[in-house]
Amino acid sequence: MAHGAGGKASRKLVEGLFIPLLAPQPSQLLGDAAQVQINGAPLAITTDSFVVKPLRFPGGSIGELAVNGTMNDLAVSGARGEALTVTFVLEEGLPTELLEAEVRAMAAAADRAGVAVVAGDTKVVEHGKADKMYITTTGIGEPLPGVKIDARSVRPGDKVILSGPIGDHGITILLARGDLDFEADLRSDTRCVLALVEAMAKEAAPGIRWMRDPTRGGVATSLNELARDCGLSIHVLEQELPVRDEVRGACELLGLDPLHIANEGQFLAVVAPEYADAALNALTLAEGGEDARIIGDVREQPAGAVLVITGYGASRIVDMLVGDPLPRIC
Amino acid sequence: MRFVDEFRDPEIITKAAAEVHRLVDPGRHYRFMEVCGGHTHAIYRFGLKDLLPENIELIHGPGCPVCVLPMGRIDDGLSLCQDSNVIFTAFGDMMRVPGTHGSPLEHKARGADVRIVYSPSDALNLARANPDRHVMFFAIGFETTAPSTALTLLRARVEGIKNFSVFCNHVTIIPAIRAILDSPDMRLDAFIGPGHVSTVIGCRPYEWICRNENKPIVVSGFEPLDMLQSIVMILRQLNAGEAKVENQYKRVVPWEGNRAALRAMAEVFQLRPYFEWRGLGFISQSALRIRDEFAEWDAEQRFQVPGVRVTDPRAAQCGEVLKGVLKPHQCKLFGRECTPEHPIGALMVSTEGSCAAYHSYEHRKQLLTNIQTAA
After folding, report:
1. In CA terms, which of B109, B142, B224, B305 is 20 to 30 Å from A99?
2. Are A179 and B117 a contacting pair at CB < 8 A?
């Protein structure tokens, strides 16, 4: 199934099956987290499952991803994660050291992110029925004051901000699988982006219209979802895209587009033009936000599409990813 | 990044584009065929059409290996992976190409052991690591990838690795160009010659095109500046009334080609009397088979291969698109029955296929422009 790779197929599955049966009258657009009210108190809630091979890779591991990923989904929905639950699905025969290492990684990541792990569950399945370990985390959080995320509030002229270099995670995983005969000095970017989002919100909260963490399917997929939801066009300046040489090089060799490669520690924000400088300044001054950039803006046309503008004035449409990115060789 | 940035420098590219505009005769319509799928991809990816005058039409050629592979060959190859002892390996390019009963990825989803490799030697490594299994490499590609298959087979023989075979679909570029030129509905002014293929075969094999057909051919690199410079070189030839082979991609392509690679190919492969190309039909001496000395490693000789022939869906016009007679969006199925998510023809699968490239990068832009104009 291509449905797990982010991108178009995932969206079709959600819109064609899950929503009609589980939430026939959705009250909000599809976002990274849902907003609910309990006795009048607004809360954000989200859940995510983590399946990664190999379990450990340069810069992180599945346990760390499981904490950061859910915290980030809350953060880009404008919420500070307050509590997480965790479910492990373990393959029988998994060495206990491996499990312990991941639990330790989760504890450290939760500590860094300032979130408590409050409940958990474990299931063991027969040997061969799972790939070592799957982790699901669910997080609830409290809305950040003054931040309202809604793709429908995006307007032509808004600026698109990206928090840092793209593609590090996806390419690191590709290389860590060891199928490719080359190496690069590259680490996954997995981290909790809450502190960065808070720093930006402190200076520019009223101007923040939309945020998303471009995980599977990459920046291209997130921006396509935005373009569709707001009915406008996103223009990205290719020269402004922060991409490390190692990622660019690997993408050039393998025929991949960095815009389609997964990230685990970056986010995109659309900010009203009058707040764009304040938002960018706040990000670049915060630890880990030094490489943030304005990568483009919102226009009216071509509506519903993402357009990449090259440094020499040509342009191309960038679509969502279809299935996993497959390397081109021949 | 060296070898990339200097060929994407906006200032130089703008100058090169201005030179193209200066050289064109506004009263003339130019039709240039880019032979290689890599060029098709580059044209869309770099938005080169935005830089060219409207009277230069670029026609996509037959140089996308997965696009020209008939469905029967895919079915034949995939028939072998029904055996649970077989590990089916292929490049990522192949993985979404549909056979009658689904693509290699769909076979994998149903339980077949299908794996992506980055080179044939990776497949041979798999064979070493899995001595109890049989590893079959589904080889595709023009002269670009054929040498690495040849070297892998030579290595397999030296090491006596018996649990490895190659299902050979390697094709050769020159007969395909000849078939295009023989097609009565084809009118071309010049060729942008394939860069990667030429690193192996060199530039000499194209000389007949200039001599017999009186058309310029410029072997080109894949960066935007390479392609613009190649178009400048073609226009200069046309303006001077010349038709010769020129090498724009000198930093990679030696005029005489790569002798060691050609030697390895000659040792392992021989020409098939004929081979079926999707959309182009049977072309004589257009593909490679594994020599009998290597029969042990030839999947077609070693296993019972059904040898099926599958006609493409009647409404699909892959052939016309492959020959450049139709633009991708002029096919009846384009964007409706046939999309990158549900490809019917291989041209919609590979990002080097003109339909997929057109669909990803251009189609919506065109549609949207039309909507804007209408509004």
Report:
1. B109
2. yes
